Amino acid sequence: MIADRMALLDSSGIRKVFDLAASMKDPINLSIGQPDFDVPDPVKDAAIEAIRRGRNRYTVTQGIPELHQALRKWLAAEKGLDPGALLITSGVSGALMLAFLVTVNPGDEVIIPDPYFVMYKHLVNLCGGKPVFVDTYPDFAVTAERLKPHLTRKTRLILLNSPANPTGAVIPQKELARIAALARENGALLVSDEIYDLFTYGEPVRSIGALYPNTLMLGGFSKSHAMTGWRVGYAAGPKEIVQEMTKLQQFSFVCAPSFAQFAALKTFETDTRCYRDDYRRKRDTIYDGLRRAGYQVQQPGGAFYIFPKVPWGSDHEFVAEAIRHELLIIPGSVFSEKATHARISYAASDETIARGLEVLRKLIEQGPPKK
Known about the structure:
By secondary structure, the chain is α/β, with parallel strands linked by helices. It has helices at residues 13-22, 41-52, 65-79, 91-103, 118-126, 144-147, 173-186, 239-250, 258-264, 273-293, 315-324, 350-366; strands at residues 28-29, 85-89, 109-114, 130-135, 155-161, 189-193, 215-220, 233-237, 305-306, 327-328, 330-331, 342-345. It folds into two domains: 4-39 and 272-365, Alpha-Beta Complex (Aspartate Aminotransferase, domain 1); 41-269, 3-Layer(aba) Sandwich (Aspartate Aminotransferase, domain 2), CATH 3.40.640. The chain has a seven-stranded mixed β-sheet, with helices on both faces. A three-stranded antiparallel β-sheet has the order 9-12-11. The chain is globular and about 60 Å long. The N and C termini lie far apart (42 Å).
């Protein structure tokens, strides 16, 4: 027998596209939500050395002390953040699950700007909470003005993701200050998913955790150093919340992968900012190409996604036609309560982006298929 709670979860639309990609000979793959560069060699070498030195057993649940120390120093220097308590997690996904399970009671409301990362809604539902979506269309700007009408006495937390998946939107520093003031006024917990923090293309933006102490900041090494499969993330924030997350991790994930924790120490000595510059150039290429083709599209401020409005039909109809042309992109409704956009990843080679833009140009010119 299957537990009733599983009916609250839909199979990921992203995974369906990944499965389809595996069956195609030469797809134009602009669906993947991970860097197209590999783990830097110094980090690989550190992982191999850790394995050879026998660092393959469980670590303490909260993560190795050396990584805590390095993270505290980095968070203070790069984000202006005194992290409070720290927990090393099995990726940011693991941190999100722990965070929701220890903070959200049945019936609690969780404020989620729409569009949103696919996991947010489902984890809230799994905890018995109520997702409260804040419409940010058409510019995808998350503002205190848009958030405020949705706060009630049942609001448990406000979820932020900047830079954002799937839109690439970045919340400016001045707006973060307004949101922090709003949260302070209402006593709400902020959960700030900052996994794409390396990839911002405008003015520097520090963590909202530096402005509002009741913030649980989540980050990791999956995007900045391409360690997506190594599953090392972290949570930094209020002591009582992180302590409860640590307790729950004892009875679930146990600890983040041991060798990967030791390898993560090397990331603080390994500069990957060159990839940010490369993604800024790719961002400009795909944004300009979509605009010239006639798409309605916002320029992303970070991450490596762009979220254009589909020119005809629903998002699923448009994506199905794109797939028939061997172009893999993701329907926007995977990330939204609306079915009007599509997510495109530009974490791809220049050749793949060029091929994808050519298909997208053809799709807007030919219009919907005749029935």
